[in-house]
Fold this protein.
Amino acid sequence: MRLRYHEPVLITEVLEHLITDTGAVYVDATVGGGGHAEGICRRLRTPGRVICFDADEEAIAHARKHLEQFGGQVEFVHANFTQLKSELCSKRVGTVGGILFDLGVSSHQLDEPARGFSFRSDEPLDMRMDRQGRKTARDVVNNTDEPMLADLLWRYGEERGSRRIAKSIIAARPVETTGQLKKIIESAVARKHSIKSIARVFQALRIEVNDELRNLDTALLSAVDLLQKGGRLAVLSYHSLEDRIVKEFFRRECATRVRSAHKYVPDKEIAPRARLLTKKPITASEEEVERNSRARSAKLRVVERI
Ligand SMILES: C[S@@+](CC[C@H](N)C(=O)[O-])C[C@H]1O[C@@H](n2cnc3c(N)ncnc32)[C@H](O)[C@@H]1O
């Protein structure tokens, strides 16, 4: 049984890179168990405050309790981070000192059998971060046709055996639980690859159910709009698909020229909106990975609004 709801990853590095103005408003776009938000609160002074978002109502309830001691210095919004701009606008917040995205699921969500994220136990297939969401993993697995299912497993899981696995899923439908799905994948791929394939298929379904990549793309754009001059945007990602989106987005925001499509037309000079602070992503130390295996795949990238 895990004692903490979630162990925050790269906490020192996140705080060092995120906070430059201790009297400003900060946004934790993915509050989870509130570990990073607590660190931010501790570094701020009045009138500095933190506005915490999460798509998961349970996470919001937990973080509210965990951060009770900070009183009015912290606020909570149960919403998808694609709604950052409209939610901050309704709170009359114009620009902010920094925004943190710590992507993916929390350890609590993975451990909680009712959430259906994990293949380590047998749970009803669900995987919704927001339980008000209409589509579950069960719906995706049982209502998607074979070519689309294979495509989804390939695109969001980079799973080489996607076609074979999709065929086996279709033949075994209806698929109701994570345990059932795990067995189907095991039967479709070579034994030595099965754990990796299972993890990739589960990742693909989770991304599809929660529309994770599209939401990230949308939210990053509004996040840069919301930063005050010198404000920072920090993103912690945990797999290559997320990291590629962040890296590409930061590259575009920091570019000083757009390459011409024609060799006789010169490149166009442009004024970048941001400056890249992490040429290479920051990763966790061996000690941290030892303490918290989740930190192993974490990549932290940061830009500053100019
Ligand atoms: C890795 S956990 C965050 C952990 C947190 N930093 C901490 O210190 O405890 C990710 C959280 O982001 C939330 N989340 C994921 N995608 C989201 C989205 N599009 N909008 C809002 N919250 C999201 C999940 O529900 C989860 O609680």
Remarks:
- The pocket of S-adenosylmethionine is lined by residues 6, 8, 30, 32-36, 53-56, 59, 80-81, 102, 104-106, 129, 215 (CB under 6 Å).
